[in-house]
Amino acid sequence: MNYENPLIVQGDRSLLLDVHAPLAEECRNDLIPFAELEKSPEHLHTYKLSPLSLWNAASAGFSADDAVSVLQKYARYDVPQSIVMWIKEISSRFGKLRLIEGPDIEVPAKEGSAEKIIEHYLYLVSDGLPVFKEIGANRAVKQLVTIATGDAPENSYLLKLTDRGTIKQLLLQAGWPVKDEVQLGDGEPLDVSLRTETSHGKPLNIREYQKNSAKALVGDKGPGTGFGTIVLPCGAGKTIVGMTIMDMLKTSTLIITTNISAVHQWIDELLDKTNLTADQIAEYSGENKEIKQVTVATYQVLTWRPDKEGPYPHFSIFHERPWGLIIYDEVHMLPAPVFRVVAELQAVRRVGLTATLVREDGCEGYVFSLVGPKRYDVPWKELERDHWIASAECIEVRIDLPVAKEIDYAVSTAREKHKIASMNPDKIPVVKQIIEKYPEDKILVIGQYLEQLDEIKEMLGCPIITGKTPNAERDKIYADFRSGAIRVLIVSKVANFAIDLPDASLAIQVSGTFGSRQEEAQRLGRILRPKERKSRFFTIITRNTVEEEFGSNRQKFLAEQGYEYKIVRYTGEIEADE
């Protein structure tokens, strides 16, 4: 028992972190690999242990003993013995079920056909009879497997190769994560290498954490390697990680990202930093639909279909070439329909790149079982300490709702309340004040509602990018912002993802999506590219409204990453601090 320690471990698997205790910062960093932040008020932050958080930790080499050691090191009171046992039991489930290579089996040909049909099967192997019996009693699982006989491993089932992803999903839902040890295919060879210096003549130095994250994914190229998720902050160079993996695997690659601007950025980066030429890289989007050795596509085009109940015609891209690697950029945005294809593509090496594993639809388990478990992550503040990303100050400015809007707000539905609070007209002069207070900064004004953004555009007279902005115009505006021709840029949520604006040092968020932690991660990431200036992230909210409630959810993400969240009551003037 040590009353100076910051952590209180409770029997309901919640962890209370006293943020004022001497070792609080160190403890927070050590909790990141295996615990999830739930609440982050002023004094005590609440973390939760979950099976998925422990399995992600186990897959990245963080053992149950490691987790218990962290709790015991920082616990103010004795760690409940039930928690220690639960951590060890749950963590040990990872690896008790394994998928390994199985036999090729001849199946009956279709009537009237003389052709032999050979199907490849896998073994689902259990490390003991009780687990074997338990999963055999699962109705959904039972429809996909049969008990293996003959030379098969003991306590094993036989399943079709094509059911590989589906079985992993079902078993994860049943509380049994599968360790996939089936060798992945190499795909079509491609001579792709990183340059030693970029096409612009600058030295290309791969950072140590970028090398380590790529190595954690590729492994020894043997069974159980070549798939998973890498979690790195925006601005930490996830694109470089993807290209490093391409260099290590040297195979035809499909890259899927969030929007057309991100497609163009990937292509520019590939041409700048690898030996690939323009005739080896294709864009597959709403504008161009080419497929080459390296193809960069958008999630939007893949999930388009002419009929709401019909097939997705562009899913065929996944089978057009013998891909050896698929990169899912911003994997936390992977649309639900694509999970079906990802379930089929379990023989292809794949990596998910993301700044946060938080998904608003609760499908983190799908990412774990289908794309792959977390292989590597680095705390944001650790990269800030090493100057790989910018230091940032997060400030929430609270303003009053105009008296004229109070009745409308009081009688509105929850959704309408959110819109009224978000579009508070008094936010607009506050935006102008902030911009005037920081004349040296390159500034992004970010919002959800186009009418509000148009009003800000009229006031400031600066460019705006929304979903309706033509792609050519959008690329030109981004280029002007990067070059310094534009100092202030207004962007809708289209700029949340995969947009590289390295010199942006101040962001003003005027409205958002119901307190989304995922969105907060991306918007903060717009200003975290390394730079000499400290970055500032302002959020303007209407006090005593649902915006204030949603704000507490957004703060969870910032607190999880170690950022202080300063709250300022607006009284007519923004105070600048240097």
Question: Can you tell me about this structure?
Answer:
The longest helix has 15 residues, at 546-560. A 7-stranded parallel sheet has the order 12-13-11-14-15-10-16, with helices on both faces. The protein is globular, with a radius of gyration of 25 Å. 36% of the residues lie in helices and 20% in strands. The two termini are 42 Å apart. It is built from 22 helices and 23 strands. With 578 residues, the protein is α/β, with parallel strands linked by helices.
Through-space gap between termini? 42 Å
Can you count the helices? 22
**Percentage of β-strand residues:** 15-25%
Main-sheet strand order equals 12-13-11-14-15-10-16
Oligomer: single chain
Low-confidence stretches: none
Estimated structural class = alpha/beta
Using the alpha-carbon principal axes, give the shape.
globular
Q: Rounded to an integer, what's the Rg over CA atoms?
A: 25 Å
Descriptors:
578 residues, alpha/beta, seven-stranded parallel sheet, 22 helices, 23 strands, 36% helix
Q: Summarize this, please?
A:
The chain is an alpha/beta fold. Helix content is 36%, strand content 20%.
Task: Please specify the SSE layout and strand pairing.
Elements: E1 7-9, E2 14-18, H1 24-31, E3 36-39, E4 44-48, H2 51-59, H3 64-74, H4 81-92, E5 97-107, E6 117-126, H5 129-136, H6 139-142, E7 145-147, E8 156-160, H7 164-173, E9 178-180, H8 208-218, E10 227-231, H9 238-249, E11 253-257, H10 260-273, E12 281-284, E13 294-298, H11 299-302, H12 317-320, E14 325-329, H13 336-344, E15 349-354, H14 364-371, E16 374-377, H15 380-385, E17 392-399, H16 403-410, H17 414-422, H18 427-437, E18 443-446, H19 450-460, E19 464-465, H20 471-483, E20 488-491, E21 506-509, H21 517-525, E22 535-542, H22 546-560, E23 565-569
Parallel strand pairs: 5-9, 10-15, 10-16, 11-13, 11-14, 12-13, 14-15, 17-22, 17-23, 18-20, 18-21, 19-20, 21-22
Antiparallel strand pairs: 1-2, 2-4, 3-4, 5-6, 6-8, 7-8
Helix pairs in contact: 3-4, 7-14, 8-9, 16-17, 21-22
